[in-house]
Design brief:
- InterPro entries: Flavoprotein-like_sf (IPR029039), FMN_Rdtase-like_dom (IPR005025), NAD(P)H-dep_FMN_reductase (IPR051814).
- The chain is built from 5 helices and 8 strands.
- It is α/β, with parallel strands linked by helices.
- It has one domain: Rossmann fold (3-Layer(aba) Sandwich).
- The strands form 2 sheets. Strands 1, 2, 3, 4, 5 and 6 form a 6-stranded parallel β-sheet that branches. A two-stranded antiparallel sheet has the order 7-8.
- Helix 1 packs across helix 5.
- The longest helix is centred in the last third of the chain and has 30 residues.
């Protein structure tokens, strides 16, 4: 299974910290996974202009192709001005509308306060659903008080990240079983 994660901002460190911890937990439980964690701060992405994602070059082509090849996606995002960052939205805009068909998506959200808890429900989940992802029902929300000196200090966040990885892999396995069953119905 191919797993791709995105730290969806070019500024700040909390989302990258949370995603790195998720990656550690995932690799403990699933060490043989083909995986890559993409930090958008490390790439220079072009703005979406409506072209097919295959027509882009450089970092834009690399990031979009990695996402298209993934079986499981973990989307990490901070909340800025009660919304997801434009850099993350641009990544979604670069892809076709059904880019996440047959892919499982887990969500990690970091925010300054609990006031932003529902941003994932009202903005990110609808985008992922529109793009046909199978979304892990529970997402991980971590706020300012869960971090100290560049580390996640809340044990509950650690446990929720472990559970997110488990749930994503379980959902991916279940979806693969459903696809195999449907494909077996055809004689060709």
């Amino acid at each position: 299974m191919k797993v791709v994660g995105i730290a969806g901002s070019i500024v700040g460190s909390k989302t990258k910290t949370a995603m790195s911890l998720l990656w550690e937990e995932m690799l403990k439980a699933y060490p043989d996974t083909d995986h890559e964690l993409l930090d958008l701060a490390d790439y220079e992405l072009q703005f979406s202009d409506g072209r097919n994602y295959l027509e882009y070059t450089g970092d834009t082509a690399y990031v979009t192709q990695k996402l298209m090849e993934a079986d499981i996606l973990f989307i990490g995002t901070p909340i800025f001005q009660a919304s997801i960052p434009g850099t993350l939205k641009n990544v979604f805009d670069l892809l076709p509308t059904q880019a996440f068909r047959d892919k499982v998506a887990g969500i990690v959200v970091t925010a300054g306060s609990a006031k932003h808890y529902l941003v994932a429900e009202q903005q990110l989940k609808p985008i992922l659903s529109y793009m046909k992802a199978h979304i892990v029902a529970s997402y991980v929300f971590a706020e300012e008080k869960d971090f100290l000196n560049g580390k996640v200090i809340n044990d509950d966040v650690h446990l929720r990240l472990q559970r997110l990885a488990e749930d994503a892999f379980d959902l991916a396995e279940a979806q693969a079983g459903v696809r195999e069953k449907k494909e077996a119905e055809y004689d060709f």
